Amino acid sequence: MSNTLCSTDGCSKLSVELNTRSALANYATEAGYCHAFLPNPSYVRMHTTVKHHVTGTVKSTVPYKDFYKPGPNYQEMELCLGCICEATTNCNLTIGCNNQGLCGPFLISQEYWIDAGTPVIRGDSPYTQGAYHRCVIEPYCAATTVRNYMRQFKQDCNQDSLFDCDDVARIHYLGGYQCGIDISHKGYYRVFKQCLNSIRQLTRI
């Protein structure tokens, strides 16, 4: 099976389609989405209770492996991450942190990173000062953080009997505890859906 998702030209076409000034294309290229699948994360799961955007107490019980497997579902997850990035910060790779303490192109909090298993960039240690910040501002490590977080909180947020990209987007925005709250009116969700629909048309996923 080929690991290629799309060519560089395909990414450029996507950026034009979304009118994003190539933000998503740049992110996809930087993180490897337009060239190869990222490997499955292998970080240790941290069983902690945290608050993200919304307070709650729900934990996921569905096995991670049922969704993250080779084939279309895994491929869609990679594209899903690109659209979440697009909806979150317009895939701004130099955004740093905002005044709420959320950092990087995915606006990841330190609590989110901890619950994702404290992934780090190559050669770093989660125990060194600044490891969280160095990870979440780096596209590859930030994407790994999101994937790991979904391992912990995988659930059917929209009650359609599936766990898919829509649920991933909701969990990322609302946190893993009350992802059933309606976000259809949010700008984040509208941009996410537009991005996902456009990228599916281009990649036929």
Largest sheet: none
Give the overall average pLDDT: 73
If helices are DSSP runs of H or I spanning 4 or more residues, what is the number of helices? 8
CATH topology: Lysozyme
GO biological process, one term: defense response to bacterium
Keywords: Antimicrobial, Bacteriolytic enzyme, Disulfide bond, Glycosidase, Hydrolase
Enzyme class: hydrolase
Disulfide bonds: 80-165, 85-91, 97-103, 135-141
Question: What does this molecule look like?
Answer:
This protein is mainly α and 205 residues long. It has a single domain (8-203), classed as Orthogonal Bundle (Lysozyme). The chain is 45% helix and 0% strand. It is built from eight helices and no strands. It has helices at residues 8-18, 23-31, 72-89, 110-115, 131-136, 139-153, 165-174, 187-203. α1 (8-18) packs antiparallel against α2, α1 (8-18) packs across α8 and α2 (23-31) crosses α3 (72-89). The longest helix has 18 residues, at 72-89. Residues 1-72 have low confidence and may be disordered.
Strand-helix topology:
Blueprint lengths: L7 H11 L4 H9 L40 H18 L20 H6 L15 H6 L2 H15 L11 H10 L12 H17 L2
Tags for this entry?
205 residues; Lysozyme; 8 helices; Invert_lysozyme; antimicrobial; glycosidase; EC 3.2.1.17; disulfide bond
